[in-house]
């Protein structure tokens, strides 16, 4: 653990940006002005590809460190931590050189599997499904389209670039869908399905492992010589911890490009995993169970752009008052559901509806989707969970914060820090317990009643949308 007078350098490996920022050593709060960002432009193709240029990504991240160095922020650093997107994969040759760009979670290319395995038992053991999101389907596809020798994810290759060691954490490995959650080791059946041995994947190191910067980077950033580099934490797990949602009585709802509701809990004696939920690892002792949603901040950004709305357009809108109902399947659904992208629907439109009504209906639809996951987690953990809200979407919209609170029909706490991923990675690595520290919201009875009254109609129309999408597919 760092001394409280030392600072933490956090590297945040996102899909739309790579960032480096400096945090305080006592509560992992960002140091004002000590942030550098490299914007990322994913490449999308008509074949379903969604990739990142590996060299450009890594060089952009290193440039962020150069910027912090030039501004005097790489002094008195006691630890280097990483938060990273889950699910990415890169095919490598026998010398460790990349044969492919970074294939992201949004990429739809893979092989179809018809393995003779008990998928429900597989899901209970790995927390994942045999879905294209995971390496069990990505690796066979990559093997069929080339001759890779090894495979790694983006955070594994960033860590190797910095330290010279290609290793992964139990948290990142769990997001590949090939980890036995109970043992923290690669799952034999998952490896058989993928068609590889464990030695073709990065070695899994314990949470307490640390590396150090290679000689090249020690010369480039002399203030980081000897500073321990901790293994990366998956962004979903890091975001939960960073919001203050790190116990089994608290659900963290985070809204960024996508959204998720999750609960962190001990891996030992974990409740049996329902088919509809996923489970990954936070660290050696904790797991995170939850549900993710493909329409969130991206939905808000799309609609405000298309409808040319101002940021405060919803300031006076009543929650649940619009007749319009939106089923937010614009980007489809996450597994195990099979709704494809392009399935978003509006019901009940009339000529007196405004652009604000359409936005309000869409954000309420997204809130109801998150509420589905929250209610499953309530049932799983046997209580009405406390709720913490965090992420850029939460920070950007006061109306959406109130909408979620009314939809959940319970008080919520808003995390005061926007940098929840970096903050959580520092907390996991250094054993910190950050507090949300933000405002407390109480649901308004009239809003709760309006949302509850329209919920049955929403559920019925949602089922129609699901059926229609399956017919189209």
UniProtKB/TrEMBL annotation:
SUPFAM superfamilies for the chain: Actin-like ATPase domain
Domain Carbohydrate kinase FGGY N-terminal: 8-242
A molecular function GO annotation: kinase activity
Domain spans labelled Carbohydrate kinase FGGY C-terminal: 251-429
Alphabetical GO biological process terms: carbohydrate metabolic process
Keywords (A to Z) from UniProt: Kinase, Transferase
Record family assignment: Belongs to the FGGY kinase family.
Record-given protein name: Gluconokinase
Organism: Kribbella pratensis
């Amino acid at each position: 653990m760092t001394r409280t007078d030392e600072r933490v350098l956090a590297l945040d490996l996102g899909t739309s940006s790579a960032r480096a920022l400096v945090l305080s050593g006592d509560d992992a709060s960002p140091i004002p002005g000590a942030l550098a960002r490299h914007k990322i432009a994913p490449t999308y193709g008509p074949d379903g590809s969604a990739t990142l240029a590996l060299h450009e990504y890594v060089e952009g991240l290193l440039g962020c460190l150069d910027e912090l160095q030039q501004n005097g922020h790489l002094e008195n650093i006691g630890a280097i931590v990483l938060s990273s997107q889950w699910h990415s994969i890169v095919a490598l040759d026998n010398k460790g050189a990349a044969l492919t760009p970074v294939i992201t979670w949004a990429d739809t290319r893979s092989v179809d599997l018809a393995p003779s395995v008990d998928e429900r038992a597989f899901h209970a053991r790995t927390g994942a499904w045999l879905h294209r999101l995971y390496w069990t389907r990505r690796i066979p596809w990559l093997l069929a389209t080339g001759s890779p020798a090894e495979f790694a994810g983006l955070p594994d290759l960033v860590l190797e670039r910095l330290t010279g060691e290609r290793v992964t954490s139990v948290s990142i490995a769990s997001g590949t869908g090939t980890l036995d959650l109970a043992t923290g080791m690669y799952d034999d059946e998952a490896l058989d399905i993928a068609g590889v041995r464990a030695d073709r994947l990065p070695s899994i190191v314990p949470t307490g492992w640390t590396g150090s910067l290679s000689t090249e980077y020690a010369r480039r950033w002399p203030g980081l010589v000897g500073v321990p580099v901790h293994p990366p934490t998956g962004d979903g797990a890091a975001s939960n911890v960073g919001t203050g949602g790190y116990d089994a009585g608290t659900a963290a709802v985070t809204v960024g490009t996508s959204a998720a509701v999750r609960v962190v809990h001990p891996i030992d004696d974990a409740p049996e995993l329902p088919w509809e939920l996923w489970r990954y690892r936070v660290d050696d002792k904790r797991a995170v169970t939850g549900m993710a949603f493909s329409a969130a901040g991206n939905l808000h950004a799309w609609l405000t752009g298309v409808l040319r709305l101002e940021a405060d357009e919803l300031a006076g809108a009543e929650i649940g008052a619009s007749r319009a109902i939106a089923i937010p399947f614009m980007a489809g659904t996450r597994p195990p559901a099979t709704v494809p992208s392009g399935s978003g629907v509006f019901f009940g439109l009339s000529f007196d509806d405004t652009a604000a009504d359409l936005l309000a209906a869409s954000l309420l639809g997204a809130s109801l989707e998150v509420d589905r996951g929250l209610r499953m987690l309530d049932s799983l953990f046997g209580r009405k969970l406390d709720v913490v809200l965090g992420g850029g979407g939460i920070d950007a919209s006061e109306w959406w914060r109130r909408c979620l609170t009314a939809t959940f029909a319970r008080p919520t706490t808003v995390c005061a820090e926007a940098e929840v991923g970096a903050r959580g990675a520092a907390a996991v690595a250094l054993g910190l317990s950050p507090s949300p520290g933000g405002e407390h919201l109480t649901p308004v009875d009239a809003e709760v009643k309006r949302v509850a009254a329209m919920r049955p109609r929403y559920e019925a129309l949602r089922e129609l949308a699901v059926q229609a999408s399956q017919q189209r597919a």
